[in-house]
Write a structure and sequence with these properties.
The protein is of the alpha/beta class. It contains nine helices and 13 strands. The protein has helices at residues 13-22, 55-59, 76-94, 113-126, 141-152, 169-182, 199-210, 224-230, 247-255, and strands at residues 2-6, 26-31, 43-46, 64-67, 98-104, 132-137, 156-159, 163-164, 186-187, 191-192, 197-198, 215-218, 241-242. It has a seven-stranded parallel beta sheet with strand order 3-2-1-4-5-6-9, sandwiched between helices. Strands 7-12 form a two-stranded parallel sheet. The radius of gyration is 18 Å and the shape is globular.
């Protein structure tokens, strides 16, 4: 199957590309910049979601599009909402048969700007012209590590009661590749990692794994968004499915 992975050079995009290639699919990697280490057998097509540049040529002959693009900045809505609108229009012109979208567990429960962007993105896909599949996953181990790593640069360890259920990107990638092969399936069952842990517990795991002497920095539960996260809004409910391994095992694999 001819598959295009938008954001195929990113944290989630790379394992999605690898998984699809291993299954024998023909994969086009769509991103602004070429991958530093191209996956053998793939083609890179330069595209810009903000302007739509390159999309028509990149989608010619494509059956399925997997959107793994991410943009965490003040311009995120322009890229992730208007960009998806532009992407869906290009897919319609190219007669793409299936759009696969990744989103975040609980994004409709936490009043945070990035999550509002994801909700708007979901709405465009589910009400759009292309048959679709939508998968929500919990936070990636990589994101948790990025946040804690940034704090560690200032020699601090965040202490908070906000709850997370991080998951490995490879498990998410596998589920997205499954969705490609299953065809348009609507909203899939939410997925997350096997353990719900507080920010303080996750920070302690990282501090011990890396042997870093860090100062604790309490984060008070101020604001509705933080209170929602403290009440497990970003974790699976009883209908969700747990996969893969926890953050402790991820740290062992990453830093050992």
């Amino acid at each position: 199957m001819q598959v295009a992975v938008v954001g195929g050079t990113g944290t989630l995009g790379v394992p999605v590309v690898l998984d699809l290639v291993s299954r024998g699919h023909t994969v086009r990697v769509l991103s602004r910049s070429a991958p530093a280490e191209p996956v053998p057998g793939t083609e890179h097509h330069p595209v810009d979601l903000a302007t739509g540049a390159g999309l028509d040529a990149a989608l010619e002959g494509v059956h399925t599009v997997v959107d793994t693009a991410n943009h965490r900045s003040l311009r995120s809505a322009r890229v992730m909402v208007e960009g998806v609108r532009t992407l869906l229009a290009a897919e319609q012109r190219a007669k793409v048969g299936h759009h696969v979208e990744i989103s975040i567990v609980g994004c409709d429960q936490v009043p945070f700007s990035y999550y509002r962007t994801k909700v708007a993105q979901e709405r465009l896909v589910t009400q759009g012209p292309i048959p679709w599949t939508l998968l929500r996953a919990t936070q990636f181990h990589d994101l948790i590590d990025e946040i804690l790593g940034a704090a560690a640069k200032f020699r601090i360890s965040p202490r908070g009661s906000m709850l997370f259920q991080p998951i490995d990107t490879a498990a998410v990638a596998t589920r997205l590749a499954d969705a490609v092969e299953s065809g348009p399936s609507g909203r899939l069952r939410d997925i997350g990692g096997p353990a719900v842990q507080s920010l303080a517990a996750l920070a302690d795991l990282r501090r011990r794994a890396l042997g870093q002497p860090l100062l604790p920095l309490p984060i008070p539960p101020v604001g509705r968004a933080i209170r929602r996260v403290r009440n497990a809004a970003l974790c699976l409910d009883n209908a969700g499915e747990t996969l893969s391994f926890d953050y402790s095992e991820w740290l062992h694999r990453r830093y050992s």
